[in-house]
Amino acid sequence: MKHTLAAFALMLVAVGLFAVSAKVVDADGPATVRLKSGKSEPVSIGKSYNTGDSIRTGKNGLVELSQEGLTIRVGPSTVFTLLEKELGGKPKGVLAVTLGSVKVKYDRLTGSEPLIQSVGCIAGVRGTELTVWAGTDGASQFIVDSGLVSVEAFGKTVELGPDESVVVLNGEQPGDKFTVHRDQIDHSKWDAGRVEALLADPLVALAGMRERLAYYAANISEYSTRYRDVNSRLKAERERAVKVGEEKGSDAVKEYEREFVTPLVLENASLVLNYRYFGLAALSMRRFVGSRMYLMLKVKFAATPEDLVWTLFAEQFAAFVAEFEKTIMPVLVDADF
Amino acid sequence: MKPIATRVASALAILIVLASCSTLQRMSDEKGAAWVAQQLNEGKAAELAAISSSPFLLDGEIIALPEDTTAFWNGLVKAGLKLDTELSRALPVGPDTWREFGSTRDVQVFFGKYVAEGARLFELSTANGRRVLVLYRSSWGSRKLYGFKGPY
Fold first, then answer.
1. Which domain range does residue B115 map to?
2. Contact B78 A77 (CB under 8 A)
3. Could you report how far apart the first and last alpha carbons of chain B are, in Å?
4. pLDDT, tens digit (0-9, with 9 covering 90-100), for A112-141
5. What CATH code is carried by the domain that includes residue B96?
6. How many angstroms separate the CA of residue A337 from the nearest CA in chain B?
7. Distance from CA of B25 to the nearest CA of A (A)
8. Domain count, chain B
9. From A290, A302, A337, residue closest to B76, measured CB to CB
10. Residue A203 confidence (pLDDT) above 60
């Protein structure tokens, strides 16, 4: 409990240090925002949302956000979250598309373009305009209008140029890129195909999700271990700072803290930011892919619960939930639910 | 000092009030459970969706989008699930009721955060003898469904 509270406090510090906001410039149809505090409210034009806030549009909902040098168009039936992670010693914004479609347009380059994340992969962009689709089964598709995009998953990167696209199935490396024709761009049609694929072979979709969960869990484990290590060093340095104060006075303490304590505090904040980032990404996958997958399969087999596919799915889903409970839950706080 | 007859009368009055409360609660539970069963049996998925909370708890999973909860009720109706309108069990939602739905933190937090005080847990039987759990609350004529588990 103490550990969770300390982590939560540090998370707030981390978010406070690195927060990136996006302002709503247009909105139409049903759209709500789930704030990082856990509170939900309708999206309102002129309001800015920050790291951890998640926008959810209804069937005919549209939201346009503006960030420094960037326009984000959130399409219908979409779950879009503003996240952040530490990359190469610097905080980096992440635009997470868990479900639905988002179009991103860079009006000007700032040098700190956010990354774009779907359930199964992450993309770096350089002066571009692109569309991201996130499917019901956790698959995603990136379509580039202009500029360059690097899509990465499980160690493989695919570079996309204008009019190129790639599909990434959850838990797998990106597929081969292909040229996309403008008249082929239809998110609902694409997602209908993803639903069909999911219902045809739910065990494959579930296996992909478990694979991705293992990736999130491995990252959380790495950053949590480093956090614990830095935290114990921080504790020792703080104790030394007290001794320095007793021996050499308050100026010496300030000097000591600046040199030895503050860097560790910042390092810790970055580590918390990262393990929280992976935790929240995993939670998003569970809520908007896993739980929906469970619901669809439950309904499909409601009249035939003895069906072998459902029995196997339910068994493997229970294993997924147990893995989630063990590896992801420890870095989540109640406000995340 | 009160005469014995007065004391007995007071005690009886308290017992009658308590019994009435318990009877009223039982009647309210039976009415609520029968209403849920009837809506499902008559294929009124829209009615059930309209009073379902968002998020909604399905077994151990939190369903975050209201359109998914609607899809769930439509799916149950389409699958032809029928419930016995007679209540098998009813209990108030207490600190440990979440365990009836699962043993995960998701379920525990859902109960603590989203299930309003005064909610009741109903157990009903399906036409083929299986069981379902319904998380239900009624207050001043308005109904709310927080979750559904089963059939199991």
1. 24-149
2. no
3. 58
4. 788 999 998 999 887 689 999 999 999 999
5. 3.10.450
6. 7
7. 32
8. 1
9. A302
10. yes
